[in-house]
Amino acid sequence: MTERDLVIVGGGPAGMAAALCAYKNGVKDVLIIERDQRLGGILNQCIHPGFGLEYFKEILTGPEYAQKVTDEIRSIKQIEVSLRSFVVKLEPHKILTILKPGSLQQVKAKTIIMATGCREKTREMIHVPGTRPAGIFSAGLAQKLINIEGLLPGKEVVIVGSGDIGLIMARRLTLEGAKVKAVVEIQKESRGLIRNVVQCLNDFDIPLYFSHKIARIYGNKRVEKVAVIKVDDHFNPIEDSGFSIDCDTVLVSVGLIPENELIEMAGVAIDKKTNCPVSSELNTTSIKGLFVCGNSYKVYDLADSVSLDSEIAGKQAAEFLGSRL
Amino acid sequence: MTEPRLTKKFICIECPKGCEITVTLDEGTIVEITGNSCEKGEAYVRAEITNPTRVLTSSVLAEGLEFKMIPVKTNKPISKAKLITAMREIKQLRIHDPVHCGEVIQRDFLGLGVNLIATRACKKVE
Ligand SMILES: Cc1cc2nc3c(=O)[nH]c(=O)nc-3n(C[C@H](O)[C@H](O)[C@H](O)COP(=O)(O)OP(=O)(O)OC[C@H]3O[C@@H](n4cnc5c(N)ncnc54)[C@H](O)[C@@H]3O)c2cc1C
Ligand code: SF4
Question: Which residues from B are below 8 Å from A when comparing CB atoms?
Fold first, then answer.
């Protein structure tokens, strides 16, 4: 088993910012473990502009933001990057088990920063009745299919939830030639940024239904239509307000939850409602020397805030290592 | 005598703040702009009234390179009315050679006076 000063799990903006800042604060042995074939995390699929205004003082697309940080990481020899490496186990004494193509390895770390990001809430979590046909995707998965794999998930789309990812995907699908028939939001206002309602929906005359929900999904092999109904202030359906929309695809964009199964496995206290670590101070957990940053610490709206807060994690890890000497 | 004044409301999309900006027009001429927190907001509503523009981002199919899709953008905003035409053109494009981030994919894209540039580097398959 090899031993490292600092191991960072996740090579998104959080993991990279933490690595750079730890290095600048004196940590000279850093290992970033990333399961994907490249650094950048979710930024790689967010090809739209809207990043970097605060952190880089210029408007960047997700890939550009990722590239800038990646270039800096790659220029520092003391930061080792291990791609296609999946951390499958974390033990309380900071031993990580890593699955790589064709091998299983263990690494012991003096300190660990978890920067594993979020995953999307799914249809199962919002309880939409109906059949289980093909054609139901989370919005982020659809984003990956289009922007990374070059595949269009459907032609006639209804989006459930008005979070930023759903709004961004409404525009993206429209530009790709699909017809986005509606965005259905159960709340009275958009969960996403108002600018995204303007530039992603209004620009393309896509209707947004507030205080409405999907009552049912129809279809055998493939989605055929959805039933939509208006809800009152307590989210109860209002009688006779229903209508249906023909579509072959439903995108679900109802929020994100921090990905924290590994630290939970290691015994870190987790808030069951938010899936965030129970924490008294930014980036800290109930285990000393085990930090969490970025979207796995809490759900952030902006990558810029992720980078800024994650730099602090790098500093905290450096201080922890320093205090151990 | 009351003048034929008209007010229009806009949400500025230039930054995440999303200021609501009110523009007062007098027979088509802008006489007052309120609600913007910075000058970018003013430029934004002026463009919205005359010729709304947007930066277009998409991705282009790569062949024989490390990634299947290469993200691209127009280096300057283009007329909103041209977005769909521009998308049709982008779908026809193929990239065969490695690119660096910022490399021009199409100069003077569709004669719009903007360049289509790659927003990430892409190498040959190793
Ligand atoms: C679809 C979408 C659109 C967004 N749009 C915007 C926007 O317009 N503007 C903006 O500022 N912000 C936007 N955001 C928010 C911003 O992109 C995120 O807040 C930010 O990227 C989060 O960074 P992160 O490093 O915490 O997580 P991520 O970028 O998700 O990175 C986590 C990394 O950890 C890796 N990982 C996870 N588990 C393991 C494991 N067990 N082993 C190894 N590696 C692992 C993952 O592969 C991934 O690379 C968007 C977010 C999403 C999801
Ligand atoms: S006016 Fe300025 S601060 Fe307000 S949204 Fe536009 S760019 Fe942002």
Answer: 11-13, 15-16, 18, 54-59, 61, 67-69, 71, 73, 80, 83-84, 87, 101, 119-121
Q: Which CATH class is domain A122-252?
A: alpha beta
Distance CA A186, CA A166 (A): 14
Give the pLDDT confidence of A233-280 residue by residue, as tens digits. Answer: 999 999 999 999 999 999 999 889 999 999 999 999 999 999 999 999
Compute the radius of gyration of chain B from its Cα atoms.
19
Task: Catalogue all structural domains in chain B, each as residue range(s) with its CATH number.
Answer: 6-50 (2.20.25), 57-118 (3.10.530.10)
Tokens of B21: 């900006």
The H or E element spanning position B45 is helix B39-50
Residue A325: predicted pLDDT = 54
Ligand 1 lined by A19 (C-beta under 6 Å): no
Q: Structurally, what CATH architecture does the domain formed by A2-119+256-324 represent?
A: 3-Layer(bba) Sandwich (3.50)
- Residue A301 sits at the chain B interface (C-beta within 8 Å): yes
**ipTM confidence:** 0.92
Atom of ligand 1 minimally distant from the CA of A45: 1
User: Is A61 an 8 Å CB contact of chain B?
Assistant: yes
Which residues are near ligand 2 (CB < 6 Å)?
Answer: B 12, 14-15, 17-19, 36-38, 40-41
Out of A47, A148, A199, closest to residue B119 by CB = A47
Instruction: Tell me where in chain A the CATH 3.50.50.60 domain(s) lie.
Output: 2-119+256-324, 122-252
A228 Cβ neighbours under 8 A, 6+ residues apart: A158, A182, A184, A209, A212, A213, A214, A215, A242, A243, A244, A245
Q: What is the reported pTM?
A: 0.94
Beta bridge partners of A107: A2, A96
